[in-house]
UniProtKB/TrEMBL annotation:
<dbReference type="InterPro" id="IPR020934">
    <property type="entry name" value="Ribosomal_uS19_CS"/>
</dbReference>
<dbReference type="GO" id="GO:0005737">
    <property type="term" value="C:cytoplasm"/>
</dbReference>
<keyword id="KW-0687">Ribonucleoprotein</keyword>
<dbReference type="InterPro" id="IPR002222">
    <property type="entry name" value="Ribosomal_uS19"/>
</dbReference>
<dbReference type="InterPro" id="IPR005732">
    <property type="entry name" value="Ribosomal_uS19_bac-type"/>
</dbReference>
<keyword id="KW-0694">RNA-binding</keyword>
<dbReference type="GO" id="GO:0000028">
    <property type="term" value="P:ribosomal small subunit assembly"/>
</dbReference>
<dbReference type="InterPro" id="IPR023575">
    <property type="entry name" value="Ribosomal_uS19_SF"/>
</dbReference>
<dbReference type="GO" id="GO:0006412">
    <property type="term" value="P:translation"/>
</dbReference>
<dbReference type="Pfam" id="PF00203">
    <property type="entry name" value="Ribosomal_S19"/>
</dbReference>
<keyword id="KW-0934">Plastid</keyword>
<keyword id="KW-0699">rRNA-binding</keyword>
<dbReference type="GO" id="GO:0019843">
    <property type="term" value="F:rRNA binding"/>
</dbReference>
<protein>
    <recommendedName>
        <fullName>Small ribosomal subunit protein uS19c</fullName>
    </recommendedName>
</protein>
<dbReference type="GO" id="GO:0003735">
    <property type="term" value="F:structural constituent of ribosome"/>
</dbReference>
<keyword id="KW-0689">Ribosomal protein</keyword>
<dbReference type="GO" id="GO:0015935">
    <property type="term" value="C:small ribosomal subunit"/>
</dbReference>
């Protein structure tokens, strides 16, 4: 039970640069970020944030169901090649 309480008390990490970009941009502008470990917060809803996956930026439209998740969950870093049959 104590582990659950720890996770609720933990402050979510959000990059300061990313917060500044989201506050200053209007909703039509795509915000680029390299911070895959940043947590999605309610002020980002409705924005398009392009998350870097190591090769290119993947645009992510932030909805209310994404709050609390990390940006890295929405931009895959690995490509799957089919297994030979």
């Amino acid at each position: 039970m104590s582990n659950i309480l720890k996770t609720f008390k933990r402050i979510p990490f959000v990059s300061g640069k990313l917060l500044k970009k989201v506050k200053s941009s209007n909703r039509k502008k795509v915000v680029l970020t390299w911070s895959r470990s940043s947590t999605i917060v309610p002020m980002m809803i409705g924005n398009v944030i392009a998350v870097y996956n190591g090769n290119r930026h993947i645009p992510v439209f932030v909805t209310d169901r994404m709050i609390g998740h990390k940006f890295g969950e929405f931009s895959s870093t690995r490509t799957f090649k089919n297994h030979k049959v």
